[in-house]
Amino acid sequence: MLKFQAEMEQEFYKSLAQQSASVPCQACKKETLVPIRLDENNTFNCEHCDVNNAVYIDITTAVTTVPLQKLETIRINESEATRTA
User: Fold this and answer.
1) Is 79 part of any domain?
2) pTM confidence score
3) Which domain covers residue 64, as residue numbers?
4) Quick one: pLDDT at residue 83?
5) Given 15, 28, 41, 42, which residue has the most CB atoms within 10 angstroms?
């Protein structure tokens, strides 16, 4: 039973590491759907022009914020103005 569970977890992590993305070829600019893996280098030959491409992944973070106040648009003399709600 433990061996089966270990194999299932291994398959889960393998599938988690695999994704795909539609990316432009840097030679002909046409889109190609390629598999993306986070655990190895990503390259592909363009299916349109047969040029070899590398895929680079950039992961960034950002602080999430909440607006201080909500804005609402109202009409004044046929022109738009904004005011706080």
Assistant:
1) yes
2) 0.54
3) 20-84
4) 54
5) 42
